[in-house]
Amino acid sequence: xxxxxxxxxxxxxxxxxxxxxxxxxxxxxxxxxxxxxxxxxxxxxxxxxxxxxxxxxxxxxxxxxxxxxxxxxxxxxxxxxxxxxxxxxxxxxxxxxxxxxxxxxxxxxxxxxxxxxxxxxxxxxxxxxxxxxxxxxxxxxxxxxxxxxxxxxxxxxxxxxxxxxxxxxxxxxxxxxxxxxxxxxxxxxxxxxxxxxxxxxxxxxxxxxxxxxxxxxxxxxxxxxxxxxxxxxxxxxxxxxxxxxxxxxxxxxxxxxxxxxxxxxxxxxxxxxxxxxxxxxxxxxxxxxxxxxxxxxxxxxxxxxxxxxxxxxxxxxxxxxxx
Length: 323
What we know:
The structure is a single chain. The longest helix has 19 residues, at 287-305. The strands form two sheets. The protein has a seven-stranded parallel β-sheet. Strands 2-1-3-4-5 form a five-stranded parallel β-sheet. It has helices spanning 12-20, 33-40, 56-61, 80-85, 98-114, 116-124, 150-161, 178-183, 191-195, 217-222, 240-248, 287-305, and strands at 3-5, 23-25, 45-48, 67-70, 89-91, 142-146, 165-169, 186-187, 200-203, 227-231, 252-257, 276-278. Strand 4, helix 4 and strand 5 (89-91) form a beta-alpha-beta unit. The protein has two domains: 3-96 and 287-305, 3-Layer(aba) Sandwich (Rossmann fold); 98-278, Rossmann fold, CATH 3.40.50. By secondary structure, the chain is α/β, with parallel strands linked by helices. 41% of the residues are buried. The chain contains twelve helices and twelve strands. The chain is globular.
């Protein structure tokens, strides 16, 4: 078996890959750890999204595996360190989704500021409540961008076009970075320094031990009263109970969440709140981003199977083990 697909994935790029290689698909395999362990032992490569958990123990048992293709950018379901030790290439097209996620972030920001979902529901129900849907402008407000990676930079560029003043928190960005100068952004040394004056806070951090619940009660308390919180990164970077408390108390004016701590999430109080926008982790789900992602992963898996160097590697360009 050349390629094992353990989730419900389908795209023209996969069909092209299947014409040249043996591709085995089982969209429910991620739900059955025992079956996954048996199947992956036979695979040279595997293609996953975010539901398949590829931990160190599972990877160690997959003695033929030389590559992992991640359809997306988050790597929290893959033990990259273990894969690297075992000589397994991890492929993830980190730039493919950035534009789509950035555009969604700005869309959510505008929707919160202008109460678009509330106005839509009210009007469709026969109302004409212009006063009750009074919003606020983005122009002249302050946006805190937490994480200035690929998506964060695109959000910052678009935020500037709306007339937002930019503050950045990212421990890996240096004060003399030309990106900051281009954005006319202020780099903050601490998270609280970024949050305190911000009218809008948007998160673009990966989920790591350092960022787990980065946004908890102290962070929400540090935010300006009446501020808006937007998360299109990973649900685990926020403490949902703390966010709910900040919204219920009126300290925060609203929140937009494309990601949750558990996905799909259980029903909660968020669904009943007019000032909360919930979307199903679909930041990358545009036709353009999906096409780019599937093509990049499929093409790289093909290169790897042919013994060639891959392009979208996150750990190494060539496998160090023989399948």
